[in-house]
Amino acid sequence: MLSKEIRSHFPILNQEINGYPLVYLDSGATSQKPVQVIEAIKKYYEFENSNVHRGVHTLGNRATESYEGAREKVRKFINARSTQEVIFTRGTTTSLNTVAQSYGRANVKEGDEIVITHMEHHSNIIPWQQLAKETGATLKYIDLEEDGTLSLDQVRSTITDKTKIVSIVYVSNVLGTMNPIKEITQIAHEHGAIMVVDGAQAAPHLKLDVQNLDCDFLAFSGHKMCGPTGIGVLYGKKELLEVMEPIEFGGEMIDFVGLYESTWKELPWKFEGGTPIIAGAIGLAAAIDFLEEIGLDEIEKHEHELAALAMEKMSTIEGLSIYGPVDPSKRAGIVTFNLNDVHPHDVATVLDMNGIAVRAGHHCAQPLMKWLQCTATARASFYLYNTEEDIDRLVAGLRTAKEYFNDVF
Ligand code: 7TS
């Protein structure tokens, strides 16, 4: 387990909610921010605030250096070959929509196939549904195994030579399942398809290496990895990005503008129309520094340990069912559950009365809820600041909830 001292970097955790010390178990929705990130954003606004890429005055140069420095930090973080492959976006949702609209419209036609899975977040479903509708392509789903994992046999039998795009979540935000992205990428490539990875729940928790995965695109959000909201990343292979059209047009992304024709800047700026999210990128860079100092491998290990402990302790509560892989080594720090027939919103409300924050609902994964044959679940998601005591508080809170709703058992 990581040292409890990590918590002291997160000012928000040091407070009481409804009379109890806060236990924050909703990092899957958004993580808390360490003081290092808050300070980096403050410093930017206090000493550097200016627009970027306009290169005349000193503040403008400082802001540009920090913004482009953040891009280099992201490049190293995911091991991309070049900063030209790192595009700043608003988040995972925008990154995935960019691929669907730009690459998709240019490369997918009637009769082609787009392949996703039943465990996708809505942000990795709807852009492809829309693309399929526009182009006449078919959207296909890879079936899940009973324990909520993907089998490579199912992957092989779903991807065909008609498949143009495969887009799969690295770590499920509901089941916690960690998918074999490298192997799936290889299968996609054998059929001439490109591989898109939804890395929203992976980037915060495990070491990413786009060259090793060989994926064509990777999308993730800053706010789930200790960074601020409003900043995200789209990684794409340079040879693909180079021939893709931007989807947002206007200031910043142009080279030359005529009355009837215009040309675009080179990569990555042609995809960053308008004043960019400067403070967001700087905050994200500070978050990467913070995570790397602790070590992504250590963070991943910590979460596996917490998930294993939570599953062990929660399974002692009669009537509580946990979804997703039984083997904790196959999942990240996410434990999704239901307590008999009690609605998860009611469970979450009782937990909140005890100072414990969990998410309840469909987790933006309605097709997965259908697959699980339920309408909603509760979810505890862990991060580097969570401790064994947090799990004990969760288990005690669940026992309280169970007593509270005793009459339904
Ligand atoms: N993909 C996955 C796997 C996610 O978990 C999320 C957000 C997204 C995409 C979208 O990210 P955004 O930053 O563009 O919004 N997931 C959640 C969640 O599980 N609870 O709240 C948001």
UniProtKB/TrEMBL annotation:
Q: What family is reported?
A: Belongs to the class-V pyridoxal-phosphate-dependent aminotransferase family. Csd subfamily.
Q: Name one Pfam family in it.
A: Aminotran_5
Q: Which GO terms describe its biological process?
A: cysteine metabolic process
- Annotated Aminotransferase class V domain ranges read 23-394
Q: Which cofactor does it need?
A: pyridoxal 5'-phosphate
Return the PROSITE patterns for the record: AA_TRANSFER_CLASS_5
Extract the Gene3D superfamilies matched here.
Aspartate Aminotransferase, domain 1, Type I PLP-dependent aspartate aminotransferase-like (Major domain)
EC number, as in UniProt = 2.8.1.7
InterPro entries from the UniProt entry: Aminotrans_V_dom, Aminotrans_V_PyrdxlP_BS, Cys_dSase_SufS, Cysteine_dSase, PyrdxlP-dep_Trfase, PyrdxlP-dep_Trfase_major, PyrdxlP-dep_Trfase_small
**Enzyme class, UniProt record, top EC level:** transferase
Mind telling me what this protein is named?
Answer: Cysteine desulfurase
Describe the task this protein carries out: Catalyzes the removal of elemental sulfur and selenium atoms from L-cysteine, L-cystine, L-selenocysteine, and L-selenocystine to produce L-alanine.
Superkingdom of origin organism: Bacteria
A single GO molecular function, which one? cysteine desulfurase activity
Keywords, sorted A to Z: Pyridoxal phosphate, Transferase
Instruction: Write down the NCBIfam families for this protein, in alphabetical order.
Output: sufS
- Source species, please? Psychrobacillus vulpis
User: What SUPFAM superfamilies does this protein map onto?
Assistant: PLP-dependent transferases
Q: Which reactions appear under catalytic activity for this entry?
A: (sulfur carrier)-H + L-cysteine = (sulfur carrier)-SH + L-alanine
